[in-house]
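Morning run. Coffee first, then this:
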Amino acid sequence: MKHFFIFLVLLGLSACQWGSKPLPQLNELPEFQLVDQSSRLFSKKDLKGKVWGVNFIFTSCAGTCPLLTERMKKVQQDLKTRAQPEELQHIGILSFSVDPERDTPEVLADYAKRYELDLQQWKLITGSVEDIQKTVVHGFKIAMGKVPRNDETKETSPAEFYDVVHGEKFLIVDDKGWIRGYYDANEAGMITFTRDLIALAKKDQ
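And here it is:
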């Protein structure tokens, strides 16, 4: 009887796995044309052929952005150990700057070097303020905005007089430009995020 019960439990787990629902299509990204850390153009058509893990940062951030970058680095490391080679080659990583006035491609390249990011799989994206706002706010549905600093020593350029606020969710985007999931930037969220990236890459091969 005990063995029969264990068999039923395992059968139930297998049924749950076999019957798992596909990730929903939440929103289609608009057409966009931005640039990466090497000043190469990156547009919606460049999403083709891969599933993308996405987050939002800015390089002068002293708060959560370094943590978001480190968590994406951990995801990238986990992908290399958990995904099959044919799955891994169908997964990319994108970090969009929400401070394009200061985050030029050169600044993003320095940021990538500082955090020792593996740019074989990972791109850092910037562009004009208008294009970034259109893509991030209207496309990804992620909030971003500038708030003035309470700093009395305004001795540098006006670009230094503000901080940036933005959404901290991680997203998955498929190779057709559809958002397939939003994930909290905590340990549980990152586990699910990594699992879903692999599952979608496996499905889309």
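Residues 82 and 151 are 46 Å apart (CA to CA). Good start to the day.
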